[in-house]
Amino acid sequence: MGDASLLVAFINVQIWLPTGNLWCMSEFSVALNDDQQQIKDWTHGFAEDVMRPAAAEWDEREEFPYPVVQEAAKIGLYGWEFLMNAGQDRTGLTLPVAVEELFWGDAGLGMAIMGSGLAAAGIAGNGTPEQTMEWVPQCYGDANDVKLGAFCVSEPDAGSDVSNLRTRAVYDEANGEWVLNGTKAWITNGGIADVHVVVAAVDPELKGRGQASFVIPPNTKGLSQGQKYMKHGIRASHTAEVVLDDVRVPGSCLLGGKEKLDAKLARAREAGKSGAPQPAMKTFEATRPTVGAQALGIARAAYEYSLEYAKERHAFGKPIIMNQAIAFKLANMITEIDASRLLIWRAAWLARNGGFTNAEGSMSKWKASEVAVRVTEEAIQILGGYGYTREYPVERWHRDAKIHTIFEGTSEIQQLVIARAISGLRVE
Ligand SMILES: Cc1cc2nc3c(=O)[nH]c(=O)nc-3n(C[C@H](O)[C@H](O)[C@H](O)COP(=O)(O)OP(=O)(O)OC[C@H]3O[C@@H](n4cnc5c(N)ncnc54)[C@H](O)[C@@H]3O)c2cc1C
């Protein structure tokens, strides 16, 4: 199974829990080292050879692409060992570099490969080392038997406002079990996952400070898939409701354990505030540079494609790139893409080397996702009528880009987080 303790150390660092002196400060550099370049080439190869040729078909089918995820698992790209290896890079850049390449290949397939990572981060961020070692590998399985994880926070009435979750978790003292009831909305891998991580209210009066995270093991009675959403983009990624109807899990499925939760609740009741971040927010905060890297991959794909097209397409007797109106669009696209990458790499480095001070993770996700939407729209414009058809990939990239301004915190919420960080005030 490999060195599971390294897995714990890696994921803890990814979500910036203190880990003593295990990881020393590293230099920030925009020049990739040999290992990073190797990972970039390797993921790019998979994106080009496996993902690109399959992308249009899975977008049309709008089904979870098990064969592609299995291919990724066979070469070690889908699996917790990949996360562990990426985690050995003290600069933090390996993961965003790899993710950019995968989403350059295709965002829907990329999301299918990356989706279990949120559940893994939710487990490692809130669980004990023993829980992390038990459950994270079960979010992935192996190449012969691929498994999936899902991280379930959002609800029909609580997406941005995660402090108002209605899903309840009640402790059944007599049986030492937790009983969960509620409905989760828009969950990546929801209902088809083997391991669901569910954030629920234990004490709703305490809002976000009264919540806890639970692992729902495979085949647990009472958990079912609600509606599967038919989407605008990333259609190869499965998104569905998750219904929890008297779901009973053993006490050991409470991430972090009951003693820690009781202490947290007592502190919150006494002081009116615990000071600790909400479980879900902690996970989302740490994964934002990686989400930015997803958007960046799509933007780069659209830029490269439209640059080549603009050099080849002739109108009025010359290549369309000879018009400043087109050339300046491309100049703007590449500048915005490079600016996004710098913000993402800085945020990824800071997450591993001292932590964020001005919500740099949110800055990187906000910037890259907005850039991806604009760049893919400009790419359609450059391709003209062809760009609007499904014969060419740019319309798909535009549809795929849009989700990045919505999930893991909308663009408005990113700005709220940044505004609060720079002002120290509770800006509304
Ligand atoms: C494809 C897809 C996959 C997803 N995967 C997951 C997943 O795996 N797990 C999970 O838990 N969730 C997931 N989500 C849910 C996603 O995180 C939420 O949709 C998102 O957080 C926004 O919440 P909402 O849809 O309720 O929008 P709302 O919160 O209702 O927001 C609606 C609009 O109001 C704005 N708004 C809200 N509050 C404020 C404010 N205070 N200030 C300014 N503007 C505000 C928002 O920015 C937005 O523009 C997924 C969603 C999609 C579409």
Give the strand content: 5-15%
What global shape is seen?
Answer: globular
Small molecules in complex: flavin-adenine dinucleotide
**Tally of separate helices:** 14
CATH architecture group name of the largest domain: Up-down Bundle
Rg calculated over all Cα atoms? 22 Å
Topology pattern, helix = H, strand = E: HHHHHHHHEEEEEEEEEHHEEHHHH
State the total count of DSSP E strands.
11
Percent helix range:
40-55%
First and last CA, distance: 47 Å
What would the average pLDDT be, to the nearest integer? 92
What does this structure look like?
The protein has 428 residues and is α+β, with helices and mostly antiparallel strands. The strands form 4 sheets. Strands 4-5-9-8 form a 4-stranded antiparallel beta sheet, with no helix packed on it. A 3-stranded mixed beta sheet has the order 3-6-7. Helix content is 52%, strand content 14%. The radius of gyration is 22 Å and the shape is globular. Bound molecules: flavin-adenine dinucleotide. The site of flavin-adenine dinucleotide has 21 residues, from strand 3, strand 5 and helix 14. Residues 118, 151-154, 159-161, 186-188, 231, 239, 403, 406-408, 410, 412-413, 416 line the site of flavin-adenine dinucleotide.
Considering the chains and any ligands shown, give keywords for the structure.
428 residues, alpha+beta, Butyryl-Coa Dehydrogenase, subunit A, domain 1, Butyryl-CoA Dehydrogenase, subunit A, domain 2, Butyryl-CoA Dehydrogenase, subunit A, domain 3, 3 domains, four-stranded antiparallel beta sheet, 14 helices, disordered N terminus, binds flavin-adenine dinucleotide
